[in-house]
Amino acid sequence: MKIIVAAKMVTDPNIKVRALSDGSGPDLASVKMAMNPFDEIAVEEAVRLKEAGIATEVVVVSIGPAKATETLRTALAMGADRGLLIRADQPVEPLAVAKLLKAVVAKESPDLVLTGKQAIDDDSNQTGQMLAALLGWGQATFASKVTVADGALQVTREVDGGLQTISVRLPAVVTADLRLKEPRYASLPNIMKAKKKPITEKTPEDYAVNVAPRLTVIRVEEPPARQAGIKVATVQELFQRLHSEAGVL
């Protein structure tokens, strides 16, 4: 079984991102970047399937600027076999990402595509679903457990009402939720080995995919600062304030 994992470079989740003064977008100058946490979970799932003897090769694909090579190196250090960078210096919207991944699937012929359920920069939660629709494959989103047996996947999904278990025939697209796996820390020897693993660089033009944006960002603003709370002396005062100031009683 060959597995393709999509891994996006995003701002480090521990960094507070500021908006540019002109409101044209987020200020990413000198900001630390990292692999999207949900994609990191997807990489971990793929590597564990390979370690269990179920998968034979794990290919990680990233779409972004040259700096996204660092994201691929992280995935290779975790245990992926090779990387593919589709060089795009402008933001690529989910539909264009899905079309690029479809083109990669056509060339690589994988049995399974794993992605994170969403990226933490735009929270779109669209790419996996769009890719499955374009490919005509079955999909299992928000996966918290994946079991492979008899050419099919048993996938436990996290839904609003609890957990749902479904069966999906391969080939399929699966998007990883938070509790699917705990990503490993890459060891120093594996980091050194990752430097020797191959990374191929392509462009959207190589796949005949138009990545021109369909949406226009009008303005990006930081959320308003949260107002400080107050202390009340008695329960009666609390009810009075909720009634007269908050208007909830």
Mind explaining what this structure looks like?
By secondary structure, the protein is of the alpha/beta class. The chain has a single domain, classed as HUPs (Rossmann fold). Helices cover 27% and strands 27% of the residues. A nine-stranded mixed beta sheet has the order 9-8-7-10-6-1-4-5-11, sandwiched between helices. The chain has a two-stranded antiparallel ribbon with strand order 2-3. A hairpin with a 2-residue loop joins strand 7 and strand 8. Helix 2 crosses helix 5 and helix 3 crosses helix 4. The longest helix has 15 residues. The chain is globular and about 65 Å long. 33% of the residues are buried. The mean pLDDT is 93.
Characteristic key phrases:
249 residues, alpha/beta, Rossmann fold, 9-stranded mixed beta sheet, two-stranded antiparallel sheet, 6 helices, 11 strands, 27% strand, globular
CATH fold annotation: Rossmann fold
Residues in helix, %: 25-40%
Number of helices: 6
Specify the overall morphology.
globular
In the CATH scheme, the class would be Alpha Beta
Give the beta-strand count. Answer: 11
Distance between the termini: 60 Å
In the predicted model, the low-confidence regions spanning at least 5 consecutive residues are none
What is the CATH architecture assignment? Answer: 3-Layer(aba) Sandwich
Alpha-carbon Rg, integer: 21 Å
Mean pLDDT: 93
CATH superfamily: HUPs
The helix/strand order is EEEHEHEHEHEEEEHEH
For the biggest β-sheet, the strand order reads 9-8-7-10-6-1-4-5-11
Beta-strand content: 25-35%
State the domain count.
Answer: 1
- Based on helices, strands and strand pairing, what is the structural class? alpha/beta
Report the biggest beta sheet as strand number plus sense, adding barrel if it closes: 9 strands, mixed
**What oligomeric arrangement do these chains adopt?**
single chain
